[in-house]
Specification:
This protein is about 50% helix and about 5% strand. The strands form two sheets. Strands 5-4-3-6-7 form a five-stranded mixed β-sheet, sandwiched between helices. The chain is built from 20 helices and seven strands. It has a domain of about 100 residues.
Length: about 550
């Protein structure tokens, strides 16, 4: 929207100073009053615009120099007993004097110094070492009277080695040839060698590196080449594409099980698919128009949607990349929901594109998104934002208490109603009072943040009325970091087909991570049992595939 047209006034600084001097001696002329009014209007306009743009400038600064944590104590700073800002490094002389009175002795480091213990190496090979001379019940070599018994906790020594991500073995079989008849006699290769060149573990490792950690094909190509085990980028794609088609039933089963969730989180981020951009998109549009289907011409943006479903205490992550928004992808997932189940709780931010069309959900909005609006304007409104952020800090503290030890959904609901409800109702009343008494400009950054909370109050406080409703959408925000990491390192997918492969691997890998499963072991298990996967995909989920492996071992 364009602002009103105004006449530009070019005023010299000396001219303004002369006008101010004349104001002390005589009444100002109409022209002089107009000049000073124009200056006042300019100052007010610039101040308002700076206030509005301050949050954007801070977001840009975060992008350039990295975002600090948004914990309340870091946003607001510490306070002393009188409610004043506490001393910080580089502060006043009094601050320095106070610091000098402190004990200069370094604090002792906590035992362990942050190192990982042996228990953290769950994927390591375990080698049990028996004592060379002692066994249970043997006489004590020291005193000769007692008997020795093994201790419950053995001594641990961790030895870490390195190797190429993908290794190769070259079998050299001797051949003999008769110098008279010319017949060649070959040494047979081991009978247990598979017919394919690339083992199932290769596809699992490439998929994990590319889609689990954002390691692009070309980087792995360069690394493997320098280590003497060539693995070209084109070969890597061929491997993961064939493997993706083999394990596709597990992805389809994840979608079906996620649809039955009690709580579903969804959001999206931007993505790039070359096939849907530029001249390629124009060619696709022309083909769509010729075929009578112009649906693809209605939207030019490309997105990666993340969905995290909570199903019976488990978490399932799904990723979908294409032109559909998060709400449209959620609608496709919920189309698999059992008809006897009621509407699930949906947690998202307040964007309308996150809603699943005509399908009914119990809508909850992200309290962290609302809180971030106040974080962004804290520098301009420190006192007001302190009151809001400290109130929300207490609400989150209550939620942390409800998790340790974990309460049932009904107990957590009653706990929040008793402890968090009064805090939020008082905050809402305070917002309305600020507007009623004109203490806050509605168009300011603070006013817009307050109005956002009041507008979406019911969805933001659903956890005070519905058992099991979450406070925020942070779990799917963290999930989308996996797609963002891939986008930052590889920039784009070439085709829709490549995006589908990425979605499949990211969904399986992150679901493993959410449920404490080893994603490499899981992918290898799927690739080594494709027939069993096709017959019973529900038995080969990240949270139950170990039982399927045990049953196969027992049957063998």
């Amino acid at each position: 929207m364009k602002g009103p047209s105004v006449k530009r006034l070019d005023l010299e600084v000396e001219q303004l100073r002369a006008t101010l001097q004349q104001a002390r001696l005589r009444p100002l002329h109409e022209q002089e009053v107009g000049q000073l009014g124009a200056v006042l209007d300019t100052v007010l306009f610039v101040t308002t615009e700076l206030d509005k743009k301050g949050a954007s400038i801070r977001r840009l600064r975060k992008l350039l120099f990295g975002a600090r944590t948004e914990k309340t104590r870091n946003v607001l700073g510490a306070q002393d007993d009188n409610g004043q800002p506490a001393a910080t490094e580089g502060g006043s002389a009094a601050d320095s004097a106070s610091a000098a009175d402190r004990d200069d002795k370094p604090k002792p480091k906590r035992k362990g110094h942050g190192r990982n213990g042996a228990a953290a190496y769950t994927g390591a090979t375990r080698v049990k070492l028996g004592h060379p001379t002692l066994q249970r019940g043997a006489a004590c070599p020291q005193c000769g009277d007692g008997k020795v018994y093994p201790m419950a906790a053995p001594a641990m020594l961790v030895r870490v080695t390195a190797q190429a991500p993908v290794q190769a073995t070259v079998y050299e079989a001797e051949r003999y040839r008769c110098n008279l008849c010319g017949v060649v006699f070959k040494t047979p290769f081991p009978a247990n060698l598979p017919a394919t060149k690339y083992d199932e573990t290769v596809g699992a490792m490439i998929g994990l590196l590319r889609y689990g950690t954002g390691f692009p094909f070309y980087r792995l190509d360069k690394l493997q080449g320098s280590l003497g085990v060539p693995l070209p980028s084109s070969t890597q794609w061929d491997i993961v594409y064939r493997r993706a088609k083999a394990i596709a039933p597990s992805f389809e089963q994840l979608i079906r099980e996620a649809a039955q969730g009690q709580v579903l989180h969804n959001d999206d981020t931007t993505a790039k698919i070359l096939e849907l951009m530029g001249k390629r998109r124009e060619a696709t549009e022309e083909a769509s128009i010729e075929s009578g289907d112009d649906e693809s011409t209605k939207r030019t943006g490309v997105f990666t949607s993340g969905i995290v479903s909570k199903v019976d205490g488990r978490s399932i992550a799904l990723f979908f990349t294409g032109r559909q928004h998060a709400g449209e992808n959620l609608e496709k997932v919920l189309a698999h929901r059992a008809s006897g189940l009621g509407p699930p709780i949906q947690m998202c931010d307040a964007l309308s594109r996150n809603l699943p069309g005509k399908l009914q959900t119990i809508l909850a909005n992200c309290l962290a998104h609302a809180r971030r609006r106040f974080v962004d304007v804290t520098e301009s409104f420190p006192a007001e934002c302190r009151h809001v952020l400290e109130t929300l800090r207490d609400v989150y503290a209550n939620d942390a208490l409800a998790r340790e030890p974990p309460m049932s959904p009904a107990e957590r609901l009653r706990f929040h109603q008793r402890h968090s409800g009064p805090l939020l109702r008082a905050l809402r009343k305070w917002f309305k009072q600020q507007f009623r008494h004109k203490q806050v400009e509605p168009n300011s950054g603070l006013g817009e943040a307050m109005q956002y909370v009041l507008t979406h109050w019911q969805a933001l406080t659903l956890f005070l009325r519905v058992a099991g409703a979450p406070l925020d959408n942070n779990i799917v925000e963290r999930a989308l970091k996996k797609a963002i990491l891939s986008r930052k390192n590889s920039y784009f997918y070439k085709t829709d087909n490549g995006a589908w492969v990425g979605d499949l691997f990211m969904s399986l890998i992150h679901t493993c991570e959410l449920n404490g499963a080893n994603p490499f072991d899981y992918l290898v298990a799927l690739l080594r049992h494709p027939e069993q996967l096709r017959q019973a995909p529900a038995d080969w989920m990240p949270y139950n595939y170990q039982q399927a492996l045990e049953q196969l071992a027992d049957a063998a």
